[in-house]
Amino acid sequence: MVVGDPCVLLISTFMLSVRDLNVSYGLRPALERVSFDVEAGRLVGVVGPNGAGKSTLVKAIMGVVPRRSGAVLLEGEPLEKVRERVAYIPQRAGIDWDFPALVREVVAMGCVPRMGWLARPARADRERVEAAIERVGLADLAHRRIGELSGGQQQRAFIARALVQQARLFLFDEPFAGVDQYTERSILGIFEQLRDAGCALLIVNHDLGDVVRHYDDLLILRGEVVAYGPREDVFTQANLNRAYLGPVAAV
What we know:
Elements (H helix, E strand, L loop, with lengths): L5 H7 L3 E10 L2 E11 L4 E5 L6 H9 L6 E6 L2 E2 L7 E4 L13 H6 L3 H4 L7 H13 L15 H15 L3 E5 L7 H16 L3 E5 L12 E5 L3 E6 H4 L2 H8 L7
Parallel strand pairs: 3-8, 3-9, 6-7, 7-8
Antiparallel strand pairs: 1-2, 1-4, 4-5, 9-10
Helix pairs in contact: 5-6
């Protein structure tokens, strides 16, 4: 790294930088030439049709699926070196809800990236866990098994785990799928608090409902970036038609 290099300084001003990301499943391209930057304090929605690569994008950022090429930087550093600063919450369908863990134990897993699996949580860690459980409205269910909770309650438990991690970047894969309106409002409130605290959030959204209005920026995908930028600039009929290959109503 050369001190004073303007390119380095430009990259380091962003919370997340994705550069020329390419991902394939076998011989089938899933993402091609995906590049974008996310500033701190931004709530970014990722939208597009089924099979557009939305979930693949967040998995590739985290390294859950291999990248054919490309780079991912967090605050100017390769994400692989600072993974503890990133909280990733996958789709509910990809989680084993039969695992015999209590809600409190699941939330406490948010301490692991910082202290490791073998260390015992300190008093401050335990207090952080209880505060996160309270924040998502699960204090009365902390002693229950995670598999006994409703879909919305399970989602809130994993958000509490992410809060305990004290990450700078949050990646959510369809957090609003199968939740009721109360849970949706609760989750949005937490997202907005994290945004206002200077974190960045990248949120895969399956549909184009009212929740889209809460995003600061939108990334519209169809295997590649169709459009990216402030919601009011990119959430247009023309961009949606390009992504969905036909008329789609913009809310």
